[in-house]
Specification:
By secondary structure, this protein is of the alpha+beta class.
Length: about 650
Amino acid sequence: MLRLYHFTGSADLEKIELTQSITAESQTIFTSAPTGVYFTSTNPKEFCDGKVSYDSLSFHVEIEISMKDPLISKCAPYDGMDVYFYGRSINLELFKCRTGPNSSWKASSSVNWKMVLGVAAVGAGAVILGKVAYDAFQENEREKEKFHRENLSSLGWEEGVGKKGSRQPKKAEFLKIGQKEVKNLQVYEPPITDSTVSDFVSSFVYKRQTEECAETNWFSKVINNIGPQNHVNKISDIMCGSKEKQENRAIEISDDTDTADMEEAFVLMEGPKMSQIYQLENLYNSRVKVEKLEQKRYLSLMKNLVGTIIAKMKEKSKTFNALYRDTYFGGSVFDGLKVNSTDQEFDLNILFKWKAKDLEVVRLGHDSSKKNFCFLKVAKKELNHFEEKILDTDGYGPDPGMKYLSPMKMFNLVKSSVDKVLTNEAQVINHEGNSYRVTRHEFAPVTLKVVSLDNFQPMAFEIDLVPSLKLELDTLKGNSNLQTHVTTLCDEYGVSEDTRSFMAISLHKADKHKFELDFHDVERKILFNRGCTKKVIKLIKFLRDSKGGTAEKLWSHLLKTSVMHHVMKTPMDYWNNANLEKCVVDSLRNLLEGLRQDSITDVFFPEVNLLDRIKKPQVKKECITWLDKLLRNYDRTGNVMNIFK
């Protein structure tokens, strides 16, 4: 059992005694967090005798909290005091506690009484000796259980289950703290009576080696929902090692385990700095990161629908059946970069069959406005009648009569095959007892719009089907500069020989004859196992979405590319989660500098300036002004959360 103290002022203690609770609003030694309460094991006598004087904090709350409470965590020492953090407001009726002025505190073997010498008693010159608040602790156990269940329900939880997914109630966007309204970031999850616990473990949590190594089994349960067992072992290694070992092992853990991420590295933080990291983590977990269960629900439905539709497309179209190779899952969801501030959507590449040895990448970059576009010249001598249907004959280039793959014809084949399925199937598909209406509308790719017909479980999302080919790097022969550049990146970031590939993508509205070259697998490897990199990208995307307006012109690939350039200029340990604040701020500065220089180049095609896509200079100017204002405010206040207000 931990004996802890919360030092505060007279006005705050009056509120604590009145409400029987300690909230984040209570002024104490440490920088306040948006949710939760700080404590120290330093008792009032030691506090008063300390080197640092805190004259305004002349009262205390003394409380006993179990060391196995999943919401209590030990932080790094501050001003010679041990620091503990409880991850939500505290209802004092559920704990043994007492309050009083620091000057009259006396050590006691156990805390079994409440509010004996509070501010009200001292102010009136009275000594309360009668009935004490410990009666609340002796209340009927069923009342405690009722309070616990109501508590879980109010935060969108079910006993023994966890979050209620899409049924989780929306929280007010702002809450009032004193005279100031701030964004509501309260998401810390309450304890659950069975072994099910939160999958959110704050990045600055650690325990002393002597305590933690004896409780590895309990700790494994705490993080069981984060990822596979090997990550439990990795994190246990961090928790039980020296500070140097902890920091080195923390770097090794990334958010690349699966789509749901394994993003929380355990590192040591210090005092007020910890609060900055905590607030960023809290913002990320409460408003940026997509709820895992919700994402899995959408993924399950999407994969079932796509699998069903692809199978029926192959039944309805012999040409599609002959040319379809596979489906490549791309886009932010499968890159681990999806944010909660945008609607659910999935980007899938419909891969066509064609051997790399039967194609040549030609006339790459001949169009000065589309230097990453090329023709795919057919080198195959004998073609079947299905293959002929997606070819064009060159009647205007340097090789009259030469055959090329046609992005437009590939697109039309996918579209017509989808239409045959949706027309014949009355546009309704069933999944796990529920019905979903699927319709098609045409943008650059073929886009499926999926809407649930169940009013009690509303769901809606879109699926982009992009005709593509996946080819080996050897296909780039004849384009030596590009091939050398990409090979160098593959060597530097550990891309294995069997995965060194690229895609030629059909974007018929951008070009009816040429394909865009895309190195998605190499991009993924650059961001793989790179500490908090993905978290930084998602925070910046959230910032853009929150701002809206002209900021939305900064499309996601541009933001990702800007951060990738920063990754390529910085060492691996720079992206340690302990450095999250600096990584976010530096990445925003890098983005701002790119906008000022009017140059954010493609990672694989340095001659391609992505900002050329923004045609209106006023848009760039407004984005520069916005980012400059945010960073100036941060430089002035040192508060990273001001960036996200």
